[in-house]
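Minimal example, chain plus uridine-diphosphate-N-acetylglucosamine.
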Amino acid sequence: MAELLCVVGARPNFMKMAPILEALRAYPALRPLLIHTGQHYDEAMSRVFFTELGLPTPDRNLEIGSGAHARQTARIMEAFDALLDERRNARLVLVVGDVNSTMACALVAAKRNVKVAHVEAGLRSRDRAMPEEINRLVTDVVSDLLFATSSDAVENLVAEGIARDKIHLVGNTMIDTVQRHLAAARARNPAGRFGLTRGGYGVVTLHRPSNVDDPAGLRGILDALRAVGTRLPLLFPVHPRTRERIAGIGFIAPAALVLCEPLGYLDFLGLMDSARLVITDSGGIQEETTALGVPCMTLRANTERPITITEGTNQLLGDDPAAILPAVDALLRDGPGPPRRPALWDGRAGERISEVLARKLGVG
Ligand code: UD1
């Protein structure tokens, strides 16, 4: 039996890991253990995803919780190091995405000479003010196996000097999860439960420190969303950090901008699927909207996922909120472009990853 430690920590990790665990079942000689660092911990940010995605209960929860970056990362590293003391036979640590848990566990494993595999390797925003960019760079440089979602990511890795034979272009496990759960998401009719109709509303998410931590900047975005609400009602499931910041500036939302609690995976997927447009600063949502063929407006100056622009439905609006209303007006006037989907975003990335893992661990 070859033991693999599969690490998840925060909300965007769960849907990336689920299809890999499912596909690994085809290799009984591989024994995946699911490790949750506990970076995200509450019902809405973590538990609901386990239930809805059919993820197994983690074999271990390190229960790290929130904290400043250095402290959170250090606590994950200590706890994961202690776990590796116990799991001396572990052959490989599999990490996904770009959150602090991803980098922390990759670094610990690499220093102990345990092989590291990174799913979603090679994405680069080239903006080192983003904590995720630091996490991506560090994780990739210490990884032995790099699984890329798109060819631009492969090019980034090669340009950074990473050996070509460590890199595998496998597609996007987040899109595997979209495909698996889309019918169930639609059946729940989440839009109807919010009193909205297909194509008759927009969805908003915001949580990046660069958008929500500065009160004047956040107010500018919320005022722009208020203006968009005069054209199209908006539903805004609010991340806990954003809720705190919105309360801090005393913003009162108009009726056409509905703020709600963070949603589970299925409801959020169903809401995106029937939205006219999505306005976001998330990374994963840029990919999910591309897979769904729903127009996405990204409130950032850069993206580590340029393929969602060149071969998808995404557009970058930059960091000036003045760009939001004209972009919405243009979309409402001109309609969406034709739906397109990047190569290998076909629902089978988890299988491809498992096949490579099995081969590299000598059981395939
Ligand atoms: C983290 C990831 C980010 C990802 C995002 C998705 C890093 C560097 N950032 O940012 O890449 O896009 O998750 O959500 O890893 N909180 C809760 N309940 C929870 C978790 C957090 O209420 O279960 C609150 C806490 O007040 C916490 C704040 O949310 O301080 C921020 O959480 P944190 O995990 O530090 O970062 P995110 O902004 O969520």
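The longest strand covers residues 2-8. The pocket of uridine-diphosphate-N-acetylglucosamine is lined by residues 10-12, 39-42, 45-46, 66, 99-100, 131-132, 207, 239-241 (CB under 6 Å).
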